[in-house]
Amino acid sequence: MAKGTNLKTAELEKISHLDYFNIAVSVDCVIFCYEEKELKVLVIKSDLEEFSGLYSLLGDLVRPDEDLDTASYRILQERTGMEDVYLEQVHTFGSIDRHPSGRVITTAYYSLIDAKHQKLRLTNNDLHWHPVRNIKKMAFDHKAILDTCLGRLREQVMEHPVIFNLLPEKFSLRELQELYEAILSVSLDRRNFRKKIGIKDWLVDLNEMEEDVPHRPGKLYKLKPEFKRKTPRRKSSNPRPQIA
Amino acid sequence: MAKGTNLKTAELEKISHLDYFNIAVSVDCVIFCYEEKELKVLVIKSDLEEFSGLYSLLGDLVRPDEDLDTASYRILQERTGMEDVYLEQVHTFGSIDRHPSGRVITTAYYSLIDAKHQKLRLTNNDLHWHPVRNIKKMAFDHKAILDTCLGRLREQVMEHPVIFNLLPEKFSLRELQELYEAILSVSLDRRNFRKKIGIKDWLVDLNEMEEDVPHRPGKLYKLKPEFKRKTPRRKSSNPRPQIA
DNA sequence: TAACATTGTGTTCTAAATACACAATGTGTA
DNA sequence: TACACATTGTGTATTTAGAACACAATGTTA
What we know:
The structure is a homodimer. Chain A is an alpha+beta fold. Chain A has two domains: about 10-155, Nucleoside Triphosphate Pyrophosphohydrolase (Alpha-Beta Complex), CATH 3.90.79; about 165-225, Winged helix-like DNA-binding domain superfamily/Winged helix DNA-binding domain (Arc Repressor Mutant, subunit A). Helix content of chain A is about 25%, strand content about 25%. Chain A is built from five helices and ten strands. Chain A has helices spanning about 10-15, 70-80, 140-160, 175-185, 190-200, and strands at about 25-35, 40-45, 55, 60, 85-95, 105-110, 130, 170, 205-210, 220-225. In chain A, the strands form two sheets. In chain A, strands 1, 2, 3, 4, 5, 6 and 7 form a seven-stranded mixed beta sheet that branches. In chain A, a hairpin with a 2-residue loop joins strand 1 (about 25-35) and strand 2. The model of chain A is unreliable at about 1-5, about 10-20 and about 230-244 (pLDDT under 50). At the A-B interface, helix 1, strand 1, strand 4, helix 2 and strand 5 of A face helix 1, strand 1, strand 4, helix 2 and strand 5 of B. Chain A binds a DNA duplex through helix 5. Chains A, B: It holds the Pfam family WHD_NrtR. Chains A, B: InterPro entries: NUDIX_hydrolase-like_dom_sf (IPR015797), NUDIX_hydrolase_dom (IPR000086), WH-like_DNA-bd_sf (IPR036388), WH_DNA-bd_sf (IPR036390), WHD_NrtR (IPR054105). Chains A, B: This is NUDIX domain-containing protein.
């Protein structure tokens, strides 16, 4: 092993039934939605004795014939019935003792979906949307995974038009602002918020109005199509410098 | 597997010698240093037929009894002889066919070290520092790993005092600016650069001057001790909002 | 002692962030 | 039918950060 991952085929075969392969690989998905003015995450009751009563994230072992992105996409599809979702890898958690049954490393993804479009397989009623801010404790290291993904979401939200994956096609600026406030746990000045969103030039004015609201209706907007990217953004390796 | 990673011990044992464990887990380290006014990366000649003549990053399989972080730290120590290094996880690469000899997923870390303090095990003379901007092609998917890590480094450099891990304890503002310029591939205005660094309040003026320079010597500075963090920063999950 | 390379420093202009108030519109209800 | 209510839509003044830009002083080398 002295030369890194430059394993020769023979070497690889020699060790392939030894300890080196006794690490299982899984993915876990932090699937966010926005419902009742709250950021929620899809969780399921843990069926391990050790974690009885606690919730866990949705995950699965990675199959030998699928890559990590495919595995997380599969989980998302199985659970939400949705085809076209925003999904991004965040971090890999690999502590020795993170899984009580053996050595399992897991790669965490976060996903943003529109609550209205999802059709949960709720036949299994352990599966449900849980408000993120109420969650204190989870099975495994899933609370740490959730926190890390929430941190990443908060970073992304400032700079990239990802948040729209949580909203229906048409939305008012009030709904958008409430969503930012829910994710960031802050309150924002309405005029400044509108100015800033305006500068970003992400939205199209649909010339339609809200309906069925018990107050003066607001204009409806949608995201400009060129910003609808469901696949993970590619990080430019040549960003505009911010230093001097 | 329908309940994610909630594997019961029995389930785990049942599958533990089946295909699910036929995925090997490795780490790869993108170890940067700054030498001769260039950003360099530590590489080694690939010893696979398929990649003859190409360089690869330093990596190794993760041992069943070590964390991912521990594994990458071990590689770093083995190769550079250094004890106290900056190391941060970046991304996990899991394409099915990324390794010609079998299914190997790898978690990439990047590391920043001071070229002067390192004692390379150069007995193996395939191992060397290679200028990052010359590298066009590498073994495996290592060029993509390098690019991703360089992208992360560029992001970090703007906001966090990580760059100082590439410099000796004492440095001049010119050296610091040249390092920023090397990493970001831009040229910066000297007065604006100094103003911006001043605002950040990262440095201590040592009241010492450069020596042995063929021109007017500049003042020497060092990083304030409270910013010396070798361990990965913890991402706050409650950042200051930048929206409105 | 002159040419050279580099240090150290400040102002103006522009862009973005923040703080803040009032008239207009549609709904619900007395 | 008119009033209370909730919310929309809009602009200015202040502060803060970024960008562009020039010149005298210092130490080295030839």
